[in-house]
């Protein structure tokens, strides 16, 4: 068997994003945690962590983390069946990668019954919907919500539904910059709002109108900030319908150009041998996500 | 003079978080950008970038980036005075680090007149309020909003006002877990919601009640997701009053324990020789922030 004291030290340092906090989470001194990781590296003959801020797992470090994550889920199943094993610990943690717009809209209501029913707390890791899978490949999360269908080896993916994005701005922004009912070309000459370097929705929308090339934009890596920037007349941007139902109903935000929503499909990726807990979450999500997503 | 072709390549790769996107932003091939960075490193006799994903500047790389940022601001001032220099470029970009709760609440309305009046677009970089200054020290941003007062060498800090945080939950959560009007100790036995590993507000709140040690918590690095988790009865957490005015007025969220808000002071840090544009932004912010923050 592996030495799980050493692996737990590695997991704590990566999950808590630092040696001091990792040590605190384990109730150990920082030097004890450092020694465990050095011992692990000595046994493997190679480093498991890059000593950056925060510490980054090496490739072999990631494989070990992935393994720890799966072992934890299996342990939890066993504890449910052999309650004597339970050491009265804090609620189980599940690490899940998802896109910011999901976390800001349908996700909390969808997972609430699961968390409450199973005494589970969640570590949410934000990743753009097109790149979230890399966190799962890196062994940092137990499951992920992302726009890519193809599962990793050893994992499964299931379609949850799509988020519908519409190109929106305030009536004031449209009147000032787009002159009422404009030719689409005007859109590339006014600022857009883009979530981050991985967010290609605005590019896709412009491409769907036959426009390409660079366009001026604010970068705003916050779902709520994104909507607030729109509301402050600073630009146009692709927003999930789910997030701005009230603003659409009241006319505070309107389509910049009629009839071109983009539907982004969301898939639930989870390890095949992830244990009962992950299986239950999967079942709840696939059953309920259609309440919020376009299926 | 430095060779600004080389420095621009470095800045583009770091700001766009990749060689391919950096090259795209400059309208160059990826190999041209790689060559410029190699040439820069050959001249300096040391690396300016760690080839990670995304690429990270080395210490000397950070100093160069900081310099580029300041030169850009000075160039912009000169262009304002000598309009012939203006090459009809896209609007000027300013990179600013701030905490997610500011971006989700007062910031968009506070900067809107400045952005619209000066044709400036913003790159927002999210950092917890206690650690935002490291982005400025790293030369990655022109200015930052953070909770630390002491300015860096060459920079200035000005008090903007405080964000008031209250410990909130739904009435249903309180009834279920905290039994109406509970002893504070019950708070450590129910899940909290914590923004991320750097968020110490929940710890500070518990400490103010005389409680310490570990407590179970969801991690949710999204301001809007944070409030949605609260609303889904998944935990209690420290929320800016500004963000939930309606929920407080309607009684959808209530204080878990009376009378203990935490005021987090916010300071505006900016380079002393940052040019006219940064000076104007500074003036607008210090004049208007009191509309939203507690002063």
From TrEMBL, chains A, B:
The keyword Transport does not apply. GO terms for molecular function: DNA binding; DNA-binding transcription factor activity. SUPFAM superfamilies: Periplasmic binding protein-like II, Winged helix' DNA-binding domain. Residues 2-58 form the HTH lysR-type domain. Signal peptide: none annotated. Pfam families: HTH_1, LysR_substrate. InterPro entries: ArgP (IPR017685), LTTR (IPR050176), LysR_HTH_N (IPR000847), LysR_subst-bd (IPR005119), WH-like_DNA-bd_sf (IPR036388), WH_DNA-bd_sf (IPR036390). The keyword Lipid metabolism does not apply. Keywords: DNA-binding, Transcription, Transcription regulation. Belongs to the LysR transcriptional regulatory family. PANTHER family: HTH-TYPE TRANSCRIPTIONAL REGULATOR ARGP, TRANSCRIPTIONAL REGULATOR. This is LysR family transcriptional regulator ArgP.
């Amino acid at each position: 068997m592996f030495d799980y004291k050493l692996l737990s030290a590695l997991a704590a340092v990566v999950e808590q994003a630092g040696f001091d906090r990792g040590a605190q989470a384990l109730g150990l001194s920082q030097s004890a945690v450092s020694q465990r990781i050095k011992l692990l590296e000595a046994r493997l003959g190679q480093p498991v962590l890059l000593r950056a801020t925060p510490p980054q797992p090496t490739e072999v470090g990631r494989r070990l983390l992935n393994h720890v994550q799966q072992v934890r889920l299996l342990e939890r199943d066993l504890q449910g069946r052999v309650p004597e094993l339970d050491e009265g610990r804090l609620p189980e943690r599940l690490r899940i990668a998802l896109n910011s717009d999901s976390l800001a809209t349908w996700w909390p209501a969808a997972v609430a019954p699961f968390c409450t029913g199973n005494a589970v707390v969640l570590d949410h890791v934000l990743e753009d919907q097109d790149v979230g899978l890399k966190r799962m490949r890196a062994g940092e999360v137990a499951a992920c919500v992302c726009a890519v269908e193809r599962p990793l080896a050893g994992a499964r993916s299931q379609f949850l539904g799509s988020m519908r994005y519409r190109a929106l701005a305030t009536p004031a922004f449209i009147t000032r910059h787009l002159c009422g009912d404009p030719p689409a070309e005007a859109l590339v000459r006014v600022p857009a709002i883009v979530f981050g370097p991985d967010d290609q929705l605005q590019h896709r929308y412009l491409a769907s109108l036959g426009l390409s090339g660079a366009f001026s934009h604010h970068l705003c890596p916050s779902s709520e900030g994104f909507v607030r920037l729109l509301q402050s007349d600073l630009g146009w941007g692709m927003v999930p319908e789910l997030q701005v139902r009230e603003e659409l109903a009241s006319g505070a935000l309107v389509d910049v150009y009629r009839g071109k929503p983009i539907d982004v499909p969301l898939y639930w990726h989870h390890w095949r041998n992830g244990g009962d807990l992950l299986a239950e979450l999967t079942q709840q999500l696939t059953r309920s996500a259609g309440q919020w997503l376009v299926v």
